[in-house]
Structures are given as structure tokens and as C-alpha cells.
Amino acid sequence: MSITLLARKQVQALTPYQSARRIGGQGHIWLNANEAAECGTYQLDCARLNRYPECQPPQVVNAYAAYANVSPEQLLVTRGGDEGIELLIRTFCEPGQDNIVICSPTYGMYAISAETNGVGIIDVPLDANRQPNVDGIIETLDNSKIVFLCSPNNPTGDLVDSKDLCRLLDAAHNRALVVVDEAYIEFCPELSQARLLADYPQLVIIRTLSKAFGLAGLRCGFTLANPEVIGLMLKVIPPYPIPEPVAQIAAQALNEQGLALMRARVVEINQLKHTLGEHLRAHPQVQEVFAPNGNYLLVRFSQGAALFARMAKAGIILRDFANRPGLADCIRITIGTQTEMDAVLEVLQQEQ
After folding, report:
1. Against a cut of 0.85, is the pTM above it?
2. pLDDT block averages, 10 residues each, the chain of length 352
3. How far, in Å, CA of 304 to CA of 325, rounded?
4. What are the CA-CA distances from residue 338 to residues 201, 216, 266, 293 (Å)?
5. What is the CA radius of gyration of the chain?
6. Are the C-beta atoms of 330 and 324 separated by less than 8 Å?
7. CB contact at 8 A, 157 and 298
8. Which of 186, 336, 327, 352 is nearest to 275 (CA)?
9. In this structure, are residues 78 and 266 in contact, taking their beta carbons and an 8 Å threshold?
10. Which of 92, 214, 268, 284 has the smallest C-beta neighbourhood within 10 Å, fewest atoms?
């Protein structure tokens, strides 16, 4: 018997999530992973590295709870938003029995986490307006435990409509959790759905420090939910999930100075995004620029593969989404520095 045959059948058949780092590439301008162009400077105190860390470091819990306007009992710190997704599935879904709902095209880790844990996937694709098909999702609720919505959606950038979300939450009462992944919400904070947490105990919000806070390498995320959901997830999370250096840096990122730095970064990125969008809409090979609500733009070109190859030849690494449903010839461009955006535009101008 081979070692592979010892693995669970779901794992044997699994295709791992193709993250930007896993796909790789060769270049000097990396605009494929929705990372920030810089992170800031932080200090570390190594005096306690010989001790196991707190499962939920209070300095981080309290700081993020204050920032998100929730109570500490409504918050769980995780290793990136991805661990929050994984924990929700492991906590609420019976392997081989339950399903999650996704709305493609969307973030790939919802499906990967379900597959890894032996949980089924029901795909209710986005409608013609790239909004969740609420009626279609409601029809699945008798067979589903968790509905995953991404707002702003990765990769399309669209936001979930609050009225539709409330209608779904009403239908999901005592039937399923509705998870809104707000990894990019700092770029349009006024459109967060977190204000609904007080009224809907079945609502869960996923957040992260990876995007607007410029700390993708830190792997620090947050789950916002009612205390009952958080209490159940605390039964499943490993005993020491947040390393001491991560807790220290996260706390600094969430203090007054850190929040000011994040908000200044958001202003700069949104300005660069607006300018890039104007240039793209005027370009003869651009068919569509999708919703500009994250730190990226998804763009449909008349010849996406050729444009992707030209960028790569110039050392600019973008993310190709042509293999996703409804996204033929679509490329996602992370908003980087002014210099990096100028380099993208220079390659585009060469083909006019």
C-alpha cells in the first residue's frame, strides 16, 4: 500500500487552493496577491518567548473589539481570516452530512476548507448583477449549515446588498449561519454589515489585518459573531494559536498610531485605484472594469491571456481569473505604489 492510499479519500482527491505564492512567477512587480505595498515599523519584546502565548491575547481582543465596535465576547482572534473560515466549518458542519453554500465566482478557500473537512458544497452562482441569488440560497437552507458571502467579493469587488442580506438572515434563523467575509472592508468601511450583528445572532463577520493594515505576513484575522458562536469556536481552536510576536505587532497595528497609518494607506490606495480605473476605462482593449471596492481592480480585456503574458514579460505579475465562471479574459490587478501603477499603464500604452 502506498502512503497516499493511507490518506483520507477527500484529501487524495483534493486540489489545493492555488494561492498567489503557490502559483508563483518571475518578476519584480508583484500585483497578484492583494497585498499592501508596505507595512510600517513595529517593535518586539522577546522577554516572554520562552512561555506559551495566550490563546486569545487580551491586548489584541480588546483593541480590535474597540475598533470594530463590538464587545470582546463577540470576537475571536485567528491565524488569518482563513482559520476563521476553517473553524466555522469544523465547528458547525458534520463531515459526510452537512453542506456549505458558496456563490461563485468568489474566494476559493471556502470550498477548499469544506472539501478538506469532508463537507459538501452547494454553489449558487452570483446573478447577472453579480449579487448573491438570495432566493436560490434560501432554497438550499434545509440542506446547508453555513452560507459564505464575500463583501467586497474577491475577485469581482461587488458588495452584498444590505436588504438582500437581511432577507437571507431572516430565512436562515435557527437554520444556518450566514458568514460575510469582509477582508477588504477597510476600503469602504461605511458599507460594513457588522452593524447587523446586534439583530441577527446567525450572522458572522470575517476580518483580517492582511489587506488595509499591510500585515499579510503576520497571519492575523478575526471572527465577529454573537458570544454563543464564539464560545463554540473556542472549543475547536488549538490551545496556542496566536504567537507572541504576532500578538505584539497586531496590538501596535491597532493602537491610535497604527489605525492612523492604516487609514492613510487606504486613502492613498483608493486614490491610485481611482486613477488606474479611469485610464483602464479609456483603453481600447478594456471591455469592463469591475466594482472598485477593494485594494484591487478586476478587468476584462479583449485579449486577457495576451495582456497577462505581456505584463509577465515586463516583470509585472498579475492574477489571471479566466478559468473562473463568467470571468473569461479577466485579470485582477492589485493596487500597488504609484511607480508600480505607472509601470502597468506603460505596458498598456505600448499596445494602443
Report:
1. yes
2. 78 70 74 94 96 97 98 98 98 97 97 96 97 98 97 98 98 98 98 98 98 98 98 97 98 98 98 98 96 98 95 95 95 98 94 56
3. 15
4. 43, 20, 14, 19
5. 20
6. yes
7. yes
8. 336
9. no
10. 284
